[in-house]
Amino acid sequence: MGLTAIDAGVLVAFLDESDAFHAAAVEAILEASTGEMLLPVVAYSELMVGVLMTGATVSWFGSVLDGLRIQVGQIDRNVAGRAATLRALALRDRRRRQWRMPDALIVADALHNGATVIITTDGRWPSVPEDLEVRVLGAVSR
Known about the structure:
The relative contact order is 0.22. The chain has one domain: Rossmann fold (3-Layer(aba) Sandwich). By secondary structure, the protein is an alpha/beta fold. It has a 5-stranded parallel beta sheet. α5 (about 75-90) crosses α6. The radius of gyration is 15 Å and the shape is globular. It contains 6 helices and 5 strands, in the order βααβααβααββ.
């Protein structure tokens, strides 16, 4: 398996046993761990807000990522340009679902780093151009 990008909701579900997506997230992370995993930097930032609100520390979350062998992406001019392109193309075609900039940055970060798959819990994303497979996890009713 190549590089798999992980969206924030997947890691939230992985860490929270009461989350409706927990079982699917555990399975997805285990499968993805046979290759390399990337947490796009915007997803990392989104997660850090929740981590800090619970009273946990940045170093604790870093150790979680290290333990799972998940690298954190970066945003540079190329990634920002790719995200803007995704958003602009969708905005030009009013029939298409629109990209929110944070989601466009997540996808652009994944593409820039060579991800072939991105796993998310968000089924509302617009279609992703290029060769990136989007896997949307299903929730399990409790």
